[in-house]
Amino acid sequence: MSRFYLSRKAISDIDDIRDYLAPIPEQYAAPIRKSLYELIHEIGANPLRGSIHSEATRLLGDVVRSRALPPYRLFYWDDRGTPEILAIINMAQDVGAILRERLQ
Q: How far out from the chain centre does Cα 77 lie?
């Protein structure tokens, strides 16, 4: 069983993704939602599989990891033994700017 926390911003990101997918035909939207759900649970079960993200780690002062689910990248940290998803960002956006805003 996987355990994880979702930050308020990550919950907002999920809501934004859900809104974005709403008008898309279900045959295309469902696999994206399923893959996102599975990756979040995979992070909970195996948090060390993610790559260390150097800029986010520098900003937060603790190791921040990330996993890709194109076009999204999930950023998380694990300071309490249970990973916390910090952000789910579309890689077409200015990822660095978004991370600086959220982690400073």
A: 10
**3 state DSSP class of 4:** coil
CATH number of the domain residue 77 falls in: 3.30.2310.20
Rounded to whole angstroms, the Cα distance separating 35 from 33 reads: 6
Domain of 20, in residue numbers: 5-103
Smallest Cα–Cα separation from 47: which of 19, 24, 67, 71? 67
Cβ–Cβ < 8 Å for 10, 85:
yes
pLDDT tens string 59-96: 878 888 999 999 999 999 987 779 999 999 999 998 88
